[in-house]
């Protein structure tokens, strides 16, 4: 079964880059532009993993994770943070909220694929 | 442009973010303690930095990082967003813009900007709270992940025993132990034992908690600590893990344990055939109904335009518009053939096609509509800079940013508007001393507004300055030979003199407003957009420049008329009504061509005479009353043929001097109809009125 990855980022270029990389690897990609949009899409579609930015308008990455983890559909779904900060504090907050892992920007395409493979096996 | 190239998307995105940044900074200058503004400004910087680094714009990322660090102190309230800071931040924004547009060219100046920025931020911090925070808030370096397991003394050991228990929430938070074990198998051949010692009694078991431990024996020559750290990268901080070398080369298999050994020592784990791990319940994906609570407002907030928009290269839109134009022409031909045929089936399909193509035309034009706010924002910067250069305090207010106009119109509108705004700031607004002397607020106001008005958009530049000086205009026009000394001119005509080529009233030519080559260029550009420009002024109170522009340039609804053998199109938006020319009106008019339309006198022009056609008109001539702005004029035609969708084609350069026509269109039968320039015709009607009524009075 083709796995579906939701990418949440307010930056169109990052979304495009993530989408291109994952699509080329045979995955389906859904895009969302902020945490709220991400929540709506994550709870109305079947997704197998979520890649989310932290710093976003409307609902930021950590708020998204907190809200999404309240939803029963989130159980067992890996959430990967995209983060520019090497800030342990944000990472810790995100983990506490229910993030599975993270990628530090800037990242290469194969790093992204490696992390996706790590958490989804795909 | 290659739309699927993320680097190009980044550039586009960065341009938009920089515009946002600029707008945010300018707003911040007005409202320095608005946290939302500070945060959105910060976010714009942050996104540029993050994406810049992703797409190889290292210089951008480094510069923005420093910018962001300095700005972070504003965000943390350690420093105030004062005018000096905004000024430098705008320079920094310009610098980023340069870096993004020319990634390979060496660009200087960045360091100075950063030095200034830091100096201001540090200075402001002391003023603000006196808490001198360090200039660069260094993020704490990530603590190195150290495996607590004792380092094996014997590095020659071949077998290692790894024991781990995942955090209890690992399963619901998306960690799949099976995948971890598969990863471990990538290090070397493994044998795995599940440790069930922590599984509680059935009655208190929580199926979502991870109770199971794993004992994994790995055969590998080198110390696998680093590789194992990699596998548990996301979990290391809060899981139990021990790693120890197993003594002895010929390690005995550990199969005496009660639990079954799960052998995952497969070299290449197959992709999709993911066997369900015995203790990992497949996550329950509850098909919950979408949480459609009554949160319309929140939803609207979330569904910012970006959420559902699609980026398309502008050329494709132009191409689409061209094709729709051709389709409309083809459809007109079909309708014409259908109308002269008795085939009802053909008529039906022709009507259907007409409806569809008209819908397609509207949709396509809708796609090309862009809110005018996209160019308004750059004027804020202009006014900000002008204010500094001229030493005038200016408040710049924009309204109607959401008003939409055709993309092409908007692009071509930017330069004329720049000129009008410069003109208002430079010539219109007085210096602060003069304003105080005149009893006005020393701070001048320039307003830029856009509103819909029928099929047009009216854009006004309004200042509260001194107004146009009629004596000076007059003197200047006489000096330049534009009018004769004894010419009697109405105020309106005097005002319009400023649009004459080579006219300039500024006593000294300033660097800003140029050398009197401005206003006539503005007028020409607006004419070229089939728009009009008008100015009204109140001495001492200020001036209003109003541009009226058609919503679109490409296709209009037209009214097809016939004069003699020729057919012409009048833009339907300009048509007010059509009446029959009363028989014998000429005889009673005593040489003056006026119609009495419900009590008001409307001048009329015989198009037959305007075009210099020979011969007599039809017996029952019609008058089409057209209007533009305030004026009205009747156009006498032989026949009104009807509505037609007019795809506007430009006249060739050879014909560009002809004033009565603004373009041409191709009719259904392949012949050409000229499009009447109603603004010009109305203007000649008006001057006719003034000549005749003036003489009569």
Blueprint (SSEs and pairs):
The complex is a heterodimer of chains A (about 120) and B (about 700).
Chain A lengths: L3 E5 L3 H13 L3 E5 L2 H10 L4 E5 L7 H9 L9 E5 L4 H10 L3 E4 L4 H12 L2
Parallel strand pairs in A: 1-2, 1-3, 3-4, 4-5
Chain B lengths: L5 H25 L4 H20 L3 H18 L7 H19 L8 H19 L30 E7 L11 H9 L4 E6 L17 E7 L5 H7 L8 E6 L15 E2 L33 H7 L11 H26 L4 H24 L1 E3 L1 H18 L3 E6 L4 E3 H22 L3 H6 L6 E10 L2 E8 L6 H10 L11 H7 L21 H10 L3 E7 L3 E9 L4 E9 L2 E6 L3 E6 L4 H4 L5 E4 L2 E7 H4 L11 E7 L2 E7 L1 E9 L13 E6 L5 E5 L1 H19 L1
Helix pairs in contact in B: 1-2, 1-4, 1-11, 2-3, 3-4, 3-5, 4-5, 9-10, 11-12, 12-16, 14-15
Describe the structure.
The complex is a heterodimer of chains A (122) and B (697). Chain A has 122 residues and is α/β, with parallel strands linked by helices. Chain A has a single domain, classed as Response regulator (Rossmann fold). Chain A has helices at 12-24, 35-44, 61-69, 88-97, 109-120; strands at 4-8, 28-32, 49-53, 79-83, 101-104. Chain A starts with a strand and ends with a helix. Mean pLDDT of chain B is 76; it is low at 125-155, 249-307 and 507-517. Chain B is of the alpha+beta class and 697 residues long. Chain B has a five-stranded antiparallel β-sheet with strand order 4-1-3-2-5, with helices on one face. Chain B has a five-stranded mixed β-sheet with strand order 7-9-10-12-11. The longest helix of chain B is centred in the middle third of the chain and has 26 residues, at 314-339. The chains are: A alpha/beta (122), B alpha+beta (697). Chain A: InterPro entries: Bact_response_regulator (IPR050595), CheY-like_superfamily (IPR011006), Sig_transdc_resp-reg_receiver (IPR001789).
Kindly report the name of the CATH homologous superfamily of the largest domain in chain B. Answer: Histidine kinase-like ATPase, C-terminal domain
Q: Alpha-carbon distance between the termini of chain A?
A: 10 Å
Contiguous low-pLDDT stretches of chain A (5 residues minimum) are none
- In CATH's first tier, which class of chain A applies? Alpha Beta
* Mean pLDDT across every amino acid position of chain A: 87
Number of folding domains of chain A? 1
What would CATH call the homologous superfamily of chain A? Response regulator
Oligomer: heterodimer
Strand content of chain A: 15-25%
The global form of chain A is globular
Give the neighbour order of strands across the main sheet of chain B: 4-1-3-2-5
How is the main sheet of chain B built? Answer: 5 strands, antiparallel
Count the helices of chain B. How many? 19
**CATH-derived topology of the largest domain in chain B:** Heat Shock Protein 90
**Based on the structure given, which CATH architecture of chain A is correct?**
3-Layer(aba) Sandwich
Modified residues (4-aspartylphosphate) (chain A): 53
Domain Response regulatory (chain A): 4-120
Keywords (chain A): Phosphoprotein
Protein name (chain A): Response regulatory domain-containing protein
């Amino acid at each position: 079964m083709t796995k579906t990855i939701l990418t949440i980022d307010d930056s169109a270029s990052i979304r495009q880059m993530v989408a291109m990389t994952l699509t080329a690897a045979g995955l389906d990609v859904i895009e969302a532009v902020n945490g709220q949009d991400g929540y709506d899409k994550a709870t109305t579609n079947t997704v197998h993993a979520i890649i989310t930015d932290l710093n976003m308008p409307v609902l930021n990455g950590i708020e998204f994770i907190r809200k999404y983890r309240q939803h029963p559909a989130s159980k067992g779904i890996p959430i990967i943070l995209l983060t520019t900060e090497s800030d342990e504090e944000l990472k810790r907050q995100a983990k506490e909220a229910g993030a599975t892992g993270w990628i530090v920007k800037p990242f290469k395409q194969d790093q992204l694929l490696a992390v996706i493979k790590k958490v989804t096996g795909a | 442009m290659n739309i699927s190239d993320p680097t190009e998307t980044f550039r586009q995105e960065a341009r938009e973010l920089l515009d946002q940044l600029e707008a945010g900074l300018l707003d911040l200058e007005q409202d320095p303690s608005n946290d939302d503004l500070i945060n959105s400004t910060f976010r714009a910087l942050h996104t540029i930095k993050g994406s810049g680094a992703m797409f190889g714009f290292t210089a951008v990322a480094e510069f923005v990082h420093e910018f962001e660090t300095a700005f972070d102190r504003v965000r943390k309230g350690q420093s105030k967003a004062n005018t000096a800071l905004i000024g430098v931040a705008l320079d920094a924004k310009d610098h980023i813009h340069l870096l993004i547009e020319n990634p390979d060219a060496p660009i200087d100046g960045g360091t100075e900007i950063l030095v200034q920025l830091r100096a201001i931020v540090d200075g402001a911090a002391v003023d603000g709270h006196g808490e001198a925070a360090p200039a660069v808030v260094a993020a704490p370096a990530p603590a190195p992940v150290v495996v607590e397991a004792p380092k094996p003394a014997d590095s020659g050991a071949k077998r290692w025993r790894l024991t781990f228990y995942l955090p209890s929430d690992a399963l619901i938070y998306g960690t799949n132990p099976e995948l971890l074990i598969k990863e471990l198998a990538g290090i070397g051949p493994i044998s795995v034992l599940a440790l069930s010692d922590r599984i509680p009694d059935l009655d208190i078991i929580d199926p979502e908690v991870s109770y199971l431990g794993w004992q994994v024996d790995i055969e590998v020559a080198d110390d696998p600590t680093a590789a194992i750290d990699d596998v548990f990268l996301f979990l290391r901080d809060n899981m139990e893990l021990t790693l120890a070398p197993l003594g002895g080369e010929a390690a005995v298999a550990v199969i005496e344990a009660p639990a079954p050994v799960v052998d995952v020592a497969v070299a290449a784990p197959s992709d999709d055939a993911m066997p369900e791990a015995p203790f990992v319940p497949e996550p329950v994906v509850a098909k919950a109904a979408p949480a459609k609570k009554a949160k319309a407002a929140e939803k609207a907030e979330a569904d910012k335009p970006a959420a559902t928009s699609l980026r398309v290269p502008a050329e494709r839109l132009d191409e689409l518009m061209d094709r729709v134009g051709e389709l409309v022409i083809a459809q007109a031909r079909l309708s014409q053939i259908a109308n002269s045929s008795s085939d009802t089936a053909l008529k039906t399909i022709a009507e259907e096609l007409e409806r569809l193509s008209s819908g397609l035309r509207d949709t396509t034009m809708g796609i090309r509509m862009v809110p005018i706010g996209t160019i308004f924002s750059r004027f804020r910067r202009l006014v900000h800079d002008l204010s500094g250069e001229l030493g005038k305090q200016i408040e710049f207010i924009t309204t109607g940013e959401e008003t939409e106009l055709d993309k092409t119109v908007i692009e071509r509108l930017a330069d004329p508007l720049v000129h009008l705004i410069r003109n208002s700031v430079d010539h219109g607004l007085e210096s602060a001393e003069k304003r105080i002397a005149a009893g006005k607020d020393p701070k001048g106001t320039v307003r830029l507004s856009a509103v819909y008005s029928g099929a047009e958009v009216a854009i006004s530049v309004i200042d509260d300055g001194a107004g146009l000086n009629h004596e000076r205009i007059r003197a200047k026009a006489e000096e330049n030979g534009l009018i004769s000394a004894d010419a009697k001119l109405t105020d309106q005509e005097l005002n319009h003199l400023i649009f004459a080529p080579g006219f300039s009233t500024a006593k000294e030519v300033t660097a800003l407003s140029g050398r009197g080559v401005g206003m006539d260029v503005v007028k020409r550009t607006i004419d070229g957009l089939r728009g009009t420009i008008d100015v009204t002024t109140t001495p001492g109170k200020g001036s209003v420049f109003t541009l009226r522009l058609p919503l679109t340039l490409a296709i209009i609804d037209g009214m097809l008329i016939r004069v003699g053998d020729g057919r012409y199109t009048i833009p339907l938006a300009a048509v007010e009504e059509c009446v029959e020319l009363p028989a014998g009106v000429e005889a009673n008019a005593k040489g003056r061509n006026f119609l009495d339309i419900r009590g008001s006198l409307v001048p009329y022009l015989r198009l037959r005479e305007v075009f210099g056609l020979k011969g007599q008109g039809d017996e029952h001539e019609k008058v089409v009353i057209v209007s533009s702005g305030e004026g009205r004029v009747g156009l006498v035609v032989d026949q009104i043929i009807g509505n037609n969708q007019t795809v506007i084609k430009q006249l060739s350069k050879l014909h560009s001097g002809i004033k009565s026509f603004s373009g041409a269109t191709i009719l259904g039968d392949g012949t050409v109809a000229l499009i009447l320039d109603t603004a010009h015709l109305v203007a000649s009607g008006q001057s006719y009125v003034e000549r005749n009524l003036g003489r009569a009075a």
